[in-house]
Write a structure and sequence with these properties.
three-stranded mixed sheet; single chain; Rossmann fold; 15 strands; GMP Synthetase, Chain A, domain 3; 354 residues
Length: 354
């Protein structure tokens, strides 16, 4: 038995509620065998939940015992705070961004559900509602942070053509439709693929959160990539999120994946504000009948299982697609349309809850 053997065994131990193992997560700070054959393991974790360290300790001891290490030879210590070991990073507790009142993440477990489309339109709707209710001017009160490092689409959907610039040691984000926008898509050649490993992705997200001059914002909308990988984990460890909006489509496969992805937020004590069902139905322009192309009721089912509410059902409308392609969201181009009204109703409910 040596260090490599121990680490291989500990790769079977996942962080409670997540699918990622504690070794790749960088939580194992020591794994060694003493001269008398004792297996010594040290785990460092940042969490506000007192049950997490005990669960990790029990899981690690069980894994080692199952691999043939005598119980009397196992010593597992879990520390809730610890300086980062060389070559690894232990994230500090999530922080608020100075000047930003609310941070709302828009997430989905599955790609292809229109999450970025929802993020762009919801951000505009939030700014419109803030102005309508006399809380803040529509211009400059809402920001959008595009954390989809590998497939950033927010710049195109919002028609952002300016580049960020430096003011002192801070990055100043460009604006579009009154929104402050930051995205990896503004920093790399649009024809070049982003091929980064997890630690680099995490560093980019932390820089977006900490080194951008957002100014005074009522709401920062964070567009997350699908799933529960490095980007999502880094974000919830870096930013003190006020809540998350889950996006799904009606079909069962999207609902199932959305529920799994949303449970990550409950594990890190981020409340689910609500669910938005995208591509809910198509309304026949001749008969007025609704055709449920992708099924029916998936959003309500997701909301019920997550213990939250359905914020809106967005229909399939060509103008939503064309707005994303041209950089003018339907909430801007057609503010009186049915989809725009649904987005504003959702935005009103989000603001009411925070």
């Amino acid at each position: 038995m040596n260090t490599e053997n121990i680490l291989e065994i500990l790769k079977k131990v996942t962080y409670p509620g997540l699918s990622r193992d504690i070794v790749s997560f960088g939580l194992v700070k020591k794994a060694e065998v003493s001269a008398d054959g004792n297996v010594l393991v040290e785990i460092a974790v940042t969490t506000s939940k007192p049950e997490i360290p005990e669960q990790l300790k029990t899981a690690a001891e069980t894994a080692l015992s199952s691999a043939g290490v005598p119980a009397g030879k196992i010593s597992v210590e879990v520390k809730t705070t610890m300086p980062a070991a060389p070559g690894s990073t232990t994230p500090p507790p999530p922080q608020k961004i100075p000047g930003v009142r609310r941070i709302i993440a828009v997430a989905s477990g599955k790609g292809g559900v229109g999450k970025s489309t929802v993020s762009a339109n919801l951000a505009v709707a939030l700014a419109q509602v803030l102005e309508e209710e006399g809380i803040a001017p529509a211009v400059g009160s809402v920001g959008v942070l595009d954390c989809d490092i590998y497939g950033p689409s927010i710049p195109m959907m919002l028609g952002v053509r300016e580049q960020p610039f430096l003011r002192g040691d801070k990055i100043v984000p460009p604006e579009a439709h009154g929104l402050k926008v930051m995205s990896m898509g503004l920093l790399v050649d649009e024809n070049s693929p982003v091929v980064w490993r997890g630690p680099v992705v995490g560093k980019a997200i932390r820089q977006f959160a900490n080194d951008v001059d957002w100014g005074a914002l009522e709401v920062l909308v964070v567009d997350l990539p699908p799933g529960t990988g490095d980007a999502q984990i880094t974000l919830v460890q870096t930013l003190a999120l006020d809540g998350a909006v889950v996006v799904t489509t009606p079909q069962d496969v999207a609902v199932a994946v959305a529920q799994r992805g949303a449970r990550m937020f409950s594990k890190v004590e981020v409340p689910i504000v609500g669910v938005i069902e995208n591509m809910s139905y198509f309304e026949n322009p001749v008969t007025g009948d609704r055709e449920y192309i992708f099924g029916k009721g998936g959003g309500a089912k997701t909301a019920g299982m997550l213990g939250t509410e359905l914020l809106g059902e967005i229909p399939v409308v060509a103008e939503i697609r064309s707005g994303g392609d041209t950089g003018t969201p339907i909430t801007v181009s057609a503010p009186d349309s049915v989809p725009a009204q649904i987005f504003r109703a959702a935005a009103s409910e989000i603001l009411r809850r925070f």
